[in-house]
Amino acid sequence: MKIAVVGAGAMGAWTVKELGLSRDVDEVVVADYDESRACEVAESHGGGKARPRFVDAREQGSVQSVLAGCDAMVNATQHFWNITVMRAAAAARVHYTDMGGLFHVTKQQVELHEEFRRAGVTAVIAMGGAPGVTNILAKYGAERLDVVEEAHAWCGNVDDTDWSGYDGWVVPYSLETLCDEFSVVAPEYIDGRWVTDI
């Protein structure tokens, strides 16, 4: 199986590492606007299976050319490029997943369902920690219960990086995404309907 990872930042690097360890994956394409970063991630995280490529995630054609011959892709770019990257995946007939788009981008992504259906490929969106895995686990649990009033989830990670000697705060993932998470109006789904308009 050949998988492309578009975006070679921290999340992309970890994704490449996991794919490099997988017996089911034969090749990983590591694509980023910063070619030197793509090379670094392919070399240090790809387990000998990865090769770097340049990509401009703002341009659908650039993404499509990277996806040629791939079976699936992981979008590890900033969420504001999700629509362009997602459309490229549908056009290239490549299965798609991403780390999430906050709610306002994810809502737009759902509207691409028909494009993916017509292309005969699957898009699994918002597969970050929360939303993402937490939502799937909550739904899985709720389906096995008679009544669910609330679902509470904790999401965290273990960072085994040696930060000794570093005095500052370590940003856990994209600072841009983090700022959006704290500044964009949060959606609310109460009693079966959206009460916050995004």
Quick summary:
With 198 residues, the protein is α/β, with parallel strands linked by helices.
Q: How many distinct folded domains?
A: 2
Residue-averaged pLDDT, rounded? 91
Give the overall shape, derived from the CA principal axes: globular
Helix % is 25-40%
Q: Radius of gyration, rounded?
A: 18 Å
Separation of the first and last Cα atoms: 38 Å
Widest sheet: strand order? 3-2-1-4-5-6
Assembly form of the protein = single chain
Task: Write the element-wise H/E pattern from the N-terminal end onward.
Answer: EHEHEHEHEHHEHHEE
Q: Write down the CATH topology of the largest domain.
A: Rossmann fold
Give the DSSP E fraction (strand runs of 2 or more residues): 15-25%
CATH top level label of the largest domain: Alpha Beta
Largest sheet: 6 strands, parallel
CATH architecture of the largest domain: 3-Layer(aba) Sandwich
Low-confidence stretches: none
Class per helix and strand makeup: alpha/beta
The CATH superfamily name of the largest domain is NAD(P)-binding Rossmann-like Domain
Count the E strands.
8
Count, helices = 8
What does this protein structure show overall?
The structure is a single chain. This protein is α/β, with parallel strands linked by helices and 198 residues long. The protein folds into 2 domains: 2-124, 3-Layer(aba) Sandwich (Rossmann fold); 129-156, no CATH class. The chain is built from 8 helices and 8 strands; from the N terminus they run E-H-E-H-E-H-E-H-E-H-H-E-H-H-E-E. Helix 2 links the parallel strand 2 and strand 3 (50-54). Helix 1 (10-21) packs parallel to helix 2 (35-45) and helix 3 (60-67) packs across helix 4 (82-92). It starts with a strand and ends with a strand.
